[in-house]
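Hi support team,

I submitted a single chain yesterday and got back a structure, but I'm not sure I'm reading the token output correctly. Could someone confirm the output below corresponds to the sequence I sent? I've pasted both exactly as they appear in my results page.

Thanks,
R.
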Amino acid sequence: MPPTSHAEERSSIIGVGFLGAGPVTQAIHLPSLARLTDLFDVAHVMDVDGDVAAEVARRVDARHSTSLEELLADPRVDVVAICSPHKFHASQVIAACRAGKKAVLCEKPLAVSGEEATEIAAVSAETGVPIIVGAMHTFDPGWLAAERLMGSLPETAHTLRSSIVLPPNARFEDFATEVIARPSFPKPDFSDPAVVAATLEGGILGLAIHDLPLVRRFVPRFDDLEMLRAEVVEPFGYVFLLRTGGRTIELTAAMNATWKPEWTFEAIGPDSQLTVTFTPSYVQAGSAIAEFTASGATSVAGPFGHNGYEGEWRRIAGIVRGTDDAPDAATLIDDLRFALAIVDGARSRVLGVAA
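Hi R., thanks for writing in. Yes, this is the structure output for that exact sequence:
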């Protein structure tokens, strides 16, 4: 067989277009892709702020624009990465699918309503374009090893716990890159129940949602969800306590500049326990470590050579090249519906009315 030419090697590189050039693109995805130049090339960067789009594109020698349509029409873009504000996700996922791209990576959440989720499911089925949601923990080799270790625990677990302690995102963003045009947010008025409800929704759809697909591994049905506690932790964080599917679920988070980062997921059964310790968000090295204890013996898996951010891009490359299966669209939609059910439960708890 003749050797592969340089031109053939370049033609197999997958072109990526970014919708949104904010901190997630700058500090998460571009550093990840910089380690995967044998698989990907950043072809196009779009942002409504033309100066930001131009500067981020300059860093990676890509084309830039302020137009969704221009990016989708770019023949060099094989995969669209959607890193825009939440409210635009559904419409942009649908547009990218209808544009016939090879895959779509959408940052979480995939949508912000059940109606949007239903429309995405229909368009995905119609077009056949695979959709990947950027819940990076589901692609972390430490979590994938945990799934192989835990045996019957998904059927026997009684308590599921996601515990997150992080400094503000800006600290890790600055470690990763020099962020351009970081958005600022006013201090919320937590004396207003509507503000509390909105803050809790942001915590669910922006932070807790990373681990909700892991929780769903143990809670395939959630039609009996009962929210027992929903509180804001200042300066930013949350405490949720809920029951569904016969399981107690604890979701806690605190972002405070003085505390040591820690991110763990636990599943506890009558005679076994799984603990997965993840690297903090925005950290670009090292996988999760999984520990599974049963019958007095503990098995440990990890750390592995890459984390979930890189894992999701490796999965995309496999999907585009036909060596990996795409995530099941129905599972992604149910993961989103689970998150939205928790949002509804929190709003009802805080506001005292049905969401």
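A quick pointer for reading it: The first helix runs from residue 6 to 11. Let us know if anything else looks off.

Best,
Support desk
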